[in-house]
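Exercise 3.2. Students should predict the tertiary structure of the chain below and write it as structure tokens, then compare their answer with the key that follows.

Predict this chain's 3D structure.
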Amino acid sequence: MRADRTFAYGATAGLLGDLLLGDPRRGHPVAAFGRAAAAVERALWRDHRGWGAVHTAVCAGGAAGAALLATRAVRGRPAASAALTAAATWAVVGGTSLGREARAIGAALDAGDVEAARARLPHLCGRDPQTLDAPGIARAVVESVAENTSDAVVGALVWGALAGVPGLVAFRAVNTLDAMVGHRSPRHLRYGWASARLDDVAGWPGARLTAALAVAAGGSPRAATRAWRADAAKHPSPNAGPVEASFAGALGVRLGGTLSYGGRVEHRPVLNGPGRAVEVGDIERAVRLSRRVGWLALGVAVAVRKVRT
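Answer key:
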């Protein structure tokens, strides 16, 4: 079996596995990686960029190296290679869990239970839920769905197309490290610098593909394109900007504005200013758009793999 077909069968099976099974409540490989990365941080932590770079290299390099060894172990066995690709794809993508958490918050808001929605929000993003009313929570959910479509689905598929199973695993490792130490807390401002910058680089192609697919799959391609071009660069994140702006245009809503992370208030530019305020029903629309983008990304990844093989 040709390598491109092995990837196509494996990645499709892995994405179907995520659709049918979602993430396990216990024993998830990404959670195991997170525990290992936390142990490395406890051993290496210094308030210094260099030590943070070592942490990033040890964790991300170790994950990629293990994936490379696994790939070599099944070389020449198409069925085993496809199974390994399927398992790796299922382990690193998280579209079903993303949609599940978003819908759970939307259901709480629909029922008028803002406190339940606030309690659930930290499962999805790092916002301070106590500072948010119902519209603020809905906006946070839509923004998180947009950003995580790139981080949890499309970016992984892009790197899988470019580098196979090691690419899938390395991308998820880098993205997980950024979530763990890449934020601007006093402890991680310097130590997490390398993880944050590497995540920016690794996420660049997936974010642009996500934005392009949101334009194609959304209900208003012209508005999505206009918002992407006009507002993406205003966002403080080079990768979240294109994704959130294109989702905002595609859904016809305004994103951005004032938000709070860990007690730190940020005033971000508005994305898609002509749009309306986010409503609870837009959570479901965002989840459906995310799902369409994920499947289109699989098609692009399979095509890229075929061209490269």
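Discussion points: The longest strand covers residues 264-271. Residues 156 and 171 are 6 Å apart (CA to CA).
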